[in-house]
Amino acid sequence: MRVTFTVNGRRQEADDVWEGESLLYLLRERLGLPGSKNACEQGECGSCTVRLDGAPVCACLVAAGQVEGREVVTVEGLADHSRERSEGGRTTGARGTSLDEARTWQAGPTGVGPGSHAADSLTGGGTELSPIQQAFIDAGAVQCGFCTPGLLVTADELLERNASPSDADIREALSGNLCRCTGYETILDAVRLAAARGGTAKAGEGA
Amino acid sequence: MGVVRTPTNLTQGSGTRGGVGESTLRPDGTLKVTGEFAYASDMWHDDMLWGFTLRSPHAHARILSIDTAQALRTPGVHAVMTHDDLRFETRYGLEYQDTPVLADAVVRHHGEPVALVAADHPETARRAAAKIKVDYEPLPLVIDEETATAPDAPLLHPHRDDHHKDHVPHPNIVHRQPIVRGDVEAAKARADVIVTGEYEVGMQDQAFLGPESGLAVPAEDGGVDLYIATQWLHADLRQIAPVLGLPEEKVRMTLSGVGGAFGGREDLSMQVHACLLALHTGKPVKIVYNRFESFFGHVHRHPAKLHYEHGATRDGRITHMKCRIVLDGGAYASSSPAVVGNASSLSVGPYVIDNVEIEALALYTNNPPCGAMRGFGAVQACFAYEAQMDRLAAELDMDPVGFRQINAMSQGAVMPTGQVVDSPAPVAELLRRVKAMPMPPERQWLCAGSGADVRALPGGLSNTTHGEGVVRGVGYAVGIKNVGFSEGFDDYSTARVRLEVINGEPVAVVHTAMAEVGQGGVTVHAQIARTELGVTQVTIHPADTQVGSAGSTSASRQTYVTGGAVKHTCEAVRERVLELGRAKFGSYHPAWATAELLLEGGKVVTDAGEVLTGLVDVLEGECVDVEREWRHRPTQAFDLVTGQGDGHVQYSFAAHRAVVEVDTELGLVKVVELACAQDVGKQLNPLSVVGQIQGATTQGLGLAVMEEIVVSEEAKVRNPSFTDYLIPTILDTPTIPVDVLELADEHAPYGLRGVGEAPTLSSTPAVVAAIRAATGLPLGRVPVRPEHLTGT
Amino acid sequence: MEFLRPADWEEALAAKAEHPSAVPIAGGTDVMVELNFDHRRPDVLVDLNRIAELEEWEVGEDVVRLGASVSYTRVIEELSAELPGLALAARTVGSPQIRNRGSVGGNLGAASPAGDSHPPLLAAGAEVEAESVRGTRLIPVEEFYTGVKRNALAPDELIRAVRIRKADGPQQFSKVGTRNAMVIAVCAFAVALHPGTRTVRTGIGSAAPTPVRAREAERFLDAALEEGGHWDNGKIIPPSVARRFGELVAGAANPIDDVRGSARYRRHALTVMARRTLGWTWEELRGRGDERSERCA
């Protein structure tokens, strides 16, 4: 069958899709978007988390045919999604810190996050990242990285809803994303860091 | 045409700083957070086929016949292969060559590969595999020590040709290592208290998140290019090439992104299968296991039964220890012999005990094969001896930490193997530190009003208690782990380092075959190159078999051994640069001849800090390119009767304090905090060190309270899924404060000590000790289940 | 395999009538696992995602009509006041991602004894609105579960909605799993107080071939509360009564030993959960603070 939908703002069409295929397979094997990861394929790890019409879902549990006409955002589109959100100002227009400012963030003695290495934030060839992506790198929340895409999509959506989550809120929101490497401490650091960089200016919403 | 996604160079921007000792960020970080990092399952080729493995539903059966005709006729199927299609070597193995590439006449465990299918879609391959008719005749099962060593026990490998076959007491014993030292009977007579205990450790899975995957692409020269997630490229190569009937240079392996490993990628999984199908069909073949298959696709941590006896005098000194450790190795040897060596030589723990009788062995059974997992034989022993320490302390009415400190080893101590511990062993200090950390506040789940936040209570979101039945307990544990390959293994690594000027800036390229599995080796290699060569720009070349072996990413060894190789090679590059400099500029400044020269900030400087010239000027158009091997001090095999020998090159130590809250009525556990103190010699990257410690600690927590592959009496795996094999979520994992000690080991590069495994050891017994403290139950088995805590 | 995408409810019913073996898929959280792991290869999948009315709920005088596809997340966010027991259970379903897709209708369709929504439905009182081209019928939820992963739907029927009695008193839900999140029930229990009728209803999950009510326990408690005048005097329930209630709840279960837990443990856990949840609801009824598990401010 043919499936037509929007991925990361772009219209995509796939032909000869087997009816039993998942959205995850469609993204990874037919559309060249392997960022969403295939760790369990049973909704028990969150590594394939994508936004489906805005809601974080496990792409492995969405039948490919079900996304006809719908909008999907994957980790590959997270930076754009985040930028559009801050430019559009619809939900997070009042966020205070620019990407550039976030990049030069330094932990003070009482700062959030793991230390004073933020000056090393440049890690690649100038790829523009969303605040949560940058925070994951800076906080050391990435080891093998297989859980990272799903965690980023989930955490980004959390911060969209709740700009200053408590630790318990973060834990509950991320409880569907397994990580086997980090012990989660640096992931908590990263979400706290992104929240701190994002400021608390989200009037009328959040915690 | 061509491989669309392959591993790339990792280059950090010129703004990146960070030599040895700094928390430099990962060079692959940006790729990993944008989804662009190419993991093995992301490999893609535009005309590739999908491979699928048909596996045995039986744990022990004779294969009477295999009929592939109907599968082969399925449209879209390009190949079906069985044992009969193998034309060259048919077996492989890390230590013993006992594992069939595809089952040959007999299957020896549930899930053993029987046949392969290649098709144009994974579903086509699955449907075709379902049409392969295999006629099995079930055989009697070997499932434990009793059935393995019974007089009429079926021999799982009747024609063993391994190097241990002649000195095992029974052919169903893979390897046995005794250690005897001192006079146990005399010491026992001096003991005021004697404590004996039976302990059991369940089968833990590595549960790395990126399932076994890879892409094999047939090459025009008749060889094959394999993109693969593994822990040791060259060990794979050594096993793959003979099966394909190819010289090693025609099997070109490149490391893809690896989604975690923890020991589970040390053995081959789908590597040979993908290559066989690719060569057979002439097309690229991709194999990706799903989670169900992954549980059958790799070895697990050995389940163990342990018997321990300790004696002590009234003043708290341990007189003697006797132990017997029986590890279930499953159907094939994997790394069981080395696991036995570790279990045996580390069974005493980080304590000075002069009189010991130790026996460790691994069985061949029809259970799932077991082999390497983080902690490698030391985990099981640590759970048992730490339980013993608590019981001894209780018998003597002593503080459990104080009792351990009395018996703690320190530098200069003699191991049961006779080996003298010749670098710092701050066991008592680690215990002191972990005990001194501030305690987490009580009842953190109480809300301001009268409510309770279930997220901080046992049972979590499941809303099982609002405080009822909840009791806090505190427990301590400390462990000892060897670093690097032991028992006389030639443990070396290779690095190639190139230094050249690109766009007016000196750039170092570091090329090794080290498997980056998430641990951050690529970060550390760049840091070492910066420190040794005084450059900022470092490129990490993808790991492949075009450079010499790096050994495995296991045994907490890569920073030590491949880090050591990178350092050593950088030193050789530096010498060459200085030679070039002396030739060009020596006559302009006497310091070129007389002073100690360093490379710093892109310049040649004297040890007094005087700048002689820029690296750019020394190199000009020249490229310095050096490949070197580096090895740590040799070790010795253990004597097969007495167990004596300097078997290990380095030891590492970590201590934990666990604070738990147990719902004593429902038997549910919330770990509130798991504090760790560890000596790491020297932190090359503090952020990575803490990440390793917290990750290892969490895997230990998993073993303590939830993780177990449950094997039925028919030797079948009952829970091969993430629905029923549970690993900790972020709501199960506590805060993990870490206190890092840096006491240099003068024998190791920069004084470092391997980090990644020791915290996995002590985490488990600390959590269980805390649960015992909360419940008063003896708890001799992990994982601790609600049934154990409620007597149901 | 065929993939049908009916645009509205009538088309869906027609499709199901034409293909009685068709498997409906909404949130996909059960069906896709079976497809991904080759446990099931239906001839036809009927996608219910495009049917807007399945995503709607309405609150009536006594009953909430919950569209079959309303996600657990929305139950938590939008219906906690009307369906507190179900909302508590919804919060324990899988992960946030699963809760964004999974629904009570899906849970009923799958009819797994471990489904988290069954016990609160049993405790609150509910009817399943089953519809086919032949018409609509209401199936009391107690009669809906007919066996392990079997329900009372006819082959041509689809679940349109669930009609759940609005809470008229405190409700609680508790489940045991061996992990603090994202865990399938080893066993689960729900209780609902109905002060209007002076009755207590219960639901047990994952401890029998189907979800069941503990009717003897309900009768015992109803009688004990009546006898002690508790509905009028609001006195604390004597520990002996709560204990006996717990034992009778466990007695109503018929659990098995499996990889998730032993039968003995399941019975034991039910006694504890029944006693505790009864205590929480009764305390709430007495107005002694909100004992429901809320996040700290």
Quick rundown:
Chain A is 32% helix and 10% strand. Chain A has 207 residues and is α+β, with helices and mostly antiparallel strands.
Molecular structure report:
The complex is a heterotrimer of chains A (207), B (792) and C (297). Chain A is of the alpha+beta class. Chain A is built from seven helices and five strands; from the N terminus they run ββαβββαααααα. Chain A has helices at residues 23-30, 78-88, 99-103, 131-138, 148-161, 167-173, 185-198, and strands at residues 3-7, 10-14, 49-52, 55-58, 71-73. The model of chain A is unreliable at 90-125 and 200-207 (pLDDT under 50). Chain B contains 19 helices and 34 strands. In chain B, strand 15, helix 6 and strand 16 form a beta-alpha-beta unit. In chain B, the strands form nine sheets. Chain B has a seven-stranded mixed β-sheet with strand order 6-10-4-17-14-15-16, with helices on both faces. The radius of gyration of chain B is 27 Å and the shape is globular. Chain C has 297 residues and is an alpha+beta fold. In chain C, 36% of the residues lie in helices and 22% in strands. Chain C is globular and about 60 Å long. Chain C starts with a strand and ends in a 12-residue tail after the last helix. Chain C has helices at 9-18, 31-36, 72-78, 84-91, 96-99, 104-110, 118-124, 141-144, 215-227, 230-233, 239-252, 263-285; strands at residues 2-4, 23-25, 44-47, 57-59, 63-67, 126-132, 135-140, 145-147, 150-151, 158-165, 171-176, 187-194, 199-205. In chain C, the strands form four sheets. In chain C, strands 4-5-10-6-7 form a five-stranded antiparallel β-sheet. Chain C has a three-stranded parallel β-sheet with strand order 1-3-2, covered by helices on one side. Chain C has a three-stranded antiparallel β-sheet with strand order 11-12-13. Chains in contact: A-B, A-C, B-C. Chains A and B meet through helix 4, helix 5, helix 6 and helix 7 of A and helix 1 and helix 17 of B.
